[in-house]
């Protein structure tokens, strides 16, 4: 049997090569409306600044990801932050 997806008895985690590792688009789309509501409740400026900070941190994690699992997790965090950014227009 060929178990390319397993290593040491545990499943390995590899990032797909389709340009969207970890479902960035899925997480972003799912949290877009929630981000808009958070902007209404907490203030658009606060949500925007939080989104920028988390997206920047997640981008750093993407850049230094040692494995595919880390890359997928960091891209998911980017999607969460982008959902906040897309819903909270830049404050004046």
Describe the protein in words.
The chain is mainly alpha-helical. It has one domain. It has helices at 24-42, 44-63, 68-87, and strands at residues 6-7, 10-11. Strands 1-2 form a two-stranded antiparallel ribbon. β1 (6-7) and β2 form a beta hairpin. α1 runs antiparallel to α2 (44-63), α1 packs parallel to α3 and α2 runs antiparallel to α3 (68-87). The longest helix has 20 residues, at 44-63. The protein is elongated, with a radius of gyration of 16 Å. The N and C termini lie far apart (61 Å). 25% of the residues are buried. Residues 1-5 have low confidence and may be disordered.
* Mean pLDDT across every amino acid position: 77
Shape: elongated
Taken as a percent bin, the fraction of beta residues is under 5%
State the strand order across the main sheet. 1-2
Structural class based on helices, strands and sheet pairing: mainly alpha
- As a percent range, the share of helical residues equals 55-70%
Radius of gyration: 16 Å
Distance between the termini: 61 Å
Largest sheet: 2 strands, antiparallel
Q: Total helix count? A: 3
The count of strands amounts to: 2
The overall number of domains is 1
**Uncertain regions spanning at least 5 consecutive residues:** 1-5
Task: Write down the secondary-structure element order.
Answer: EEHHH
List the SSEs and their pairings.
Layout: E1 6-7, E2 10-11, H1 24-42, H2 44-63, H3 68-87
Summarize the model shown.
With 92 residues, this protein is mainly α. It has one domain. Helix content is 64%, strand content 4%.
């Amino acid at each position: 049997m060929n178990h390319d997806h397993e290593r040491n008895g545990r499943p390995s985690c590899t990032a797909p090569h389709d340009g969207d590792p970890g479902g960035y688009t899925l997480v972003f789309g799912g949290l877009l409306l929630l981000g808009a509501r958070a902007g209404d409740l907490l203030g658009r400026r606060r949500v925007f600044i939080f989104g920028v900070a988390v997206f920047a941190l997640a981008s750093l994690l993407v850049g230094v990801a040692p494995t595919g699992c880390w890359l997928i997790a960091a891209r998911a965090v980017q999607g969460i932050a982008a959902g906040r950014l897309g819903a909270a227009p830049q404050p004046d």
